[in-house]
Write a structure and sequence with these properties.
The chain is an all-alpha fold. The protein has two helices and no strands. The termini are far apart.
Length: 53
């Protein structure tokens, strides 16, 4: 009976590790998307300077 609990613990650990690896892989791409928002604000400011506003 103790062997079943050990197998369940191993499966739970493997699933947790896979979920952490997936979150780390997806989270590595987040900062590049936020940089684009800041770049558009900077280009609109320069465009207003070009128009003499």
């Amino acid at each position: 009976m103790d062997g079943i609990y050990f197998l369940v613990l191993l499966v739970f650990g493997a699933l947790t590790g896979a979920l952490l690896a997936l979150c780390a892989a997806l989270g590595a791409n987040l900062p590049t998307g936020r940089g684009g928002v800041d770049d558009t604000a900077a280009t609109s400011k320069h465009a207003a300077d070009d128009r003499g506003l």
